[in-house]
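Amino Acid Chain and Its Fold in Token Form
===========================================
Scope: a single protein chain, as residues and as a discrete description of its fold.
Amino acid sequence: labelled as such and written in the usual single-letter residue code.
Position: the record begins directly beneath this header, with no further notes in between.
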Amino acid sequence: MTLLVAAAAAGEPSCYSRLTNEWFCAQYLSDYRQEITDATVQHLQITVASVVLGVLIAFPLALIARRLPRLETLIVGAATAVYTIPSLALLPLLVPFTGLSATTVVIGLALYALTILVRSMLEGLRSVPEDVRESAVGLGYGATRLLVLVELPLALPVIMAGLRVATVSTVALTTVGSLVSYGGLGNLIADGVSTNFRAELMTAAILCVAIAVLLDVLIVVAQRILTPWTRGARA
């Protein structure tokens, strides 16, 4: 849809008509509120789903890499190799299996997030002092209890730092989903670029930044709630 053409055809003066085409336009926000809202919601859904899927894949991979050092190079190398594949190539490669759907974008972005998530989880687990592990084992902690009650809480700051980077990166990469018509705000950006629609392009770009900041703040708040002892250490 070319909104500029529609605005010009209406014959009404507007800050997003062909004659003015301003970067900031309150009338555009009002007239196309539903379209902007739908794109924003889709962007959030795809981003969150991609990060969650990435975490679910990265965590067992990090555990395997830590337990089996011989496979660490293979796992980390494979995750890094995926990140080197251009999105213009990766998404079309997934289309034959998942079709032109949001699933294609979610899987692609989750694979990209593995590079950061696997490394941060692996480094986080390794940052746990060995004497703490030995003490827990001496108290009768099994492998599962040791991981859940001792190692993960202590590794959480490093893991959350990686999660923040992966999430912000995913917010930006979600726009590439416009290749298969599921790019959230990326769809508006693509249309704004192709039609030189400044208000649409600027609005979508600002909303992308806002989503990245919002999710980053939420992760920071979650980290502070989950690791109250770190607040005391900083004080």
The radius of gyration is 22 Å. The chain has a mean pLDDT of 86. The longest helix spans residues 33-67. The CA atoms of residues 40 and 185 lie 6 Å apart.
